[in-house]
Write a structure and sequence with these properties.
Helix content is 40%, strand content 24%. The chain is of the alpha/beta class. It has a domain at 1-111 and 300-353: P-loop containing nucleotide triphosphate hydrolases (Rossmann fold, 3-Layer(aba) Sandwich), CATH 3.40.50.300.
Length: 353
């Protein structure tokens, strides 16, 4: 997968701008020049959301009511045009000029993976970051998982409303059964994933950290370690009805589970330095790149935005060597990184937004 051209209109501080990319492109410029906004626009078009904010309205240029992102690229050896219009809190996607009725039908058509300062949150004590990481990755390579995940969260929302409003008990039981059925698929697919992902991580850990370490990945269920297939979540709901009514929300299920990662028996959340947490996040993302390739036969576009700020020059150069093996890398730096002579330079300090 390759990006050739990108045009953005009313995106962040950009009124209208066209960029062209090579297999290796470095975007430089002072803080506030728009480096991250370019990376964000690519990520948004390929994931339909920002990695910086959950409020799309903040992305629209001040004084405007919409933004447009258009991308020309190559996928599977064929050229394509991907476009997205955001207006009135709606996203309209088109592929080769044809409107995609349901946004989710375009998910996975063109894939990018972002490396950023947020990666170290994967080592955080909060399970939500790892859960979202796993859900997004499996959804990228498995449409059935993606559909089940969407349905699960839709049913979960309705079930929580019934619990909060003390609604119809029969309807609550219906939602409980539907939620339980989808939980089995999500649970089993996640278990398959982490077994395979653990092997990938062990192969990458020594390469990135330059030291040996046994990486273990374990699934931690909100259902007290129970197997969703042997003991359906529906039974858990039935025996804990009063508890959930008191809490006014669903207290068990895949939406509360965690993926626990340890290195030499030590939880990654206990990693001491910010640099180590950053490195582990980068290792997880590299594993993501390789997993996507093994499943779809193409590497995603690699986006790197301020991902190495916690690392020294030696470690940064080592990681840049690793990224040389991927078809396309687009990276941001405040100023030109001298070791990247084969990179096309987009210097925003010399261009007008």
């Amino acid at each position: 997968m390759i990006i050739k051209k990108l045009s953005i209109v009313n995106f962040r501080n950009f009124s209208s701008k066209l960029f062209t990319f090579e297999d290796r492109t470095m975007i430089t410029g002072a803080n506030g020049s728009g480096k991250t906004s370019i990376i964000e626009s690519i990520y948004y078009l390929t994931n339909f959301k920002s990695f910086r904010t959950s409020n799309d309205k903040k992305i629209v240029k001040i004084g405007e009511d919409s933004f447009i992102i258009n991308l020309e690229g190559e996928r599977g050896g064929e050229d394509f045009v991907l476009g997205l219009l955001y207006k009135d809190n709606k996203k309209i996607l088109s592929i080769n000029g044809n409107r995609i009725t349901k946004l989710r039908d375009g998910f996975g058509f063109f894939i990018s993976v972002i490396f950023s300062t947020y990666d170290k949150l994967l080592s955080d004590r909060m399970a939500i970051y790892r859960r979202k990481f796993v859900d997004r990755l499996i959804s990228t390579i498995d449409n059935e998982y993606f559909e089940n995940l969407i349905q699960y969260h839709s049913i979960l929302k309705r079930r929580n409303f019934i619990l909060k409003e003390d609604g119809d008990k029969r309807l609550l039981e219906t939602y409980s059964l539907q939620l339980s059925e989808r939980s089995v698929y999500l649970y089993e697919r996640r278990l398959e994933f982490i077994t395979y992902f653990e092997d990938l991580l062990n192969g990458l850990y020594e390469k990135v950290f330059e030291r040996k370490g046994l990486v273990k990945v374990k699934y931690s269920s909100s259902k007290d370690g129970g197997n969703f297939k042997d003991v359906p979540l529906f039974e858990k709901f039935k025996t804990n009805f009063s508890f959930e009514k008191q809490k006014k929300r669903t207290m068990f299920g895949p939406h509360l589970d965690d993926i626990v990662i340890t290195v030499e028996g030590k939880p990654v959340s206990d990693f001491g330095s910010e640099g180590e947490k950053t490195l582990l996040g980068i290792t997880l993302k590299i594993a993501e790149l390789n997993l996507i390739y093994e499943n779809i036969g193409e590497y995603p576009v690699v986006l790197i935005d301020d991902a190495f700020s916690e690392l020294d020059r030696i470690k940064t150069n080592k990681l840049l060597e690793i990224f040389e093996s991927y078809p396309q890398v687009i990276i941001t730096f405040p100023k030109k990184w001298e070791n990247l002579e084969n990179y096309k330079i987009i210097d925003l300090d010399k261009e007008r937004i």
